[in-house]
Amino acid sequence: MFSINGAEIVFNPSATVGTLSEPLWGIEARNAAIANSYFTCAINRVGTEVFEKEFTSGDGQPAHKDFGHFYGSSYVAAPNGSRSPGLSRVKNGLLIAELDLNLCRQVRDHWSFQMTQRLDMYAEQLAKAVQPDFVPQIIHKK
């Protein structure tokens, strides 16, 4: 929706820990930037957080108070798939990046996704898919 409405930069603040999503972190914002033809600023905090009360994480481990280590590594991804270097995993930092917003238009023109998108069809299918009685089409391979 951001891209459809003309966004050129989207900030994605995050507070995720290493065991949850770190293996995907380096490509997550790049994928969003490429698919949507805008810059994506992937922001993740550093350090740890300990809660007053114990909680479970749904991973089968015993209840605990330590949320885990936030892995930082914030970066900026461009619509052409390039990205900036990442910040530290363990120290707070400030990333300053110069962004050429013309790149958003250049990538959109090159890929022509807007020319071939079918927003009316997507909206119709989404309206059907969110209904409680929706039955997805299943194709069986013979």
From TrEMBL:
<dbReference type="InterPro" id="IPR050345">
    <property type="entry name" value="Aliph_Amidase/BUP"/>
</dbReference>
<dbReference type="GO" id="GO:0003837">
    <property type="term" value="F:beta-ureidopropionase activity"/>
</dbReference>
<feature type="domain" description="CN hydrolase">
    <location>
        <begin position="1"/>
        <end position="101"/>
    </location>
</feature>
<dbReference type="InterPro" id="IPR036526">
    <property type="entry name" value="C-N_Hydrolase_sf"/>
</dbReference>
<keyword id="KW-0378">Hydrolase</keyword>
<protein>
    <recommendedName>
        <fullName>CN hydrolase domain-containing protein</fullName>
    </recommendedName>
</protein>
<dbReference type="GO" id="GO:0033396">
    <property type="term" value="P:beta-alanine biosynthetic process via 3-ureidopropionate"/>
</dbReference>
<dbReference type="Pfam" id="PF00795">
    <property type="entry name" value="CN_hydrolase"/>
</dbReference>
<dbReference type="InterPro" id="IPR003010">
    <property type="entry name" value="C-N_Hydrolase"/>
</dbReference>
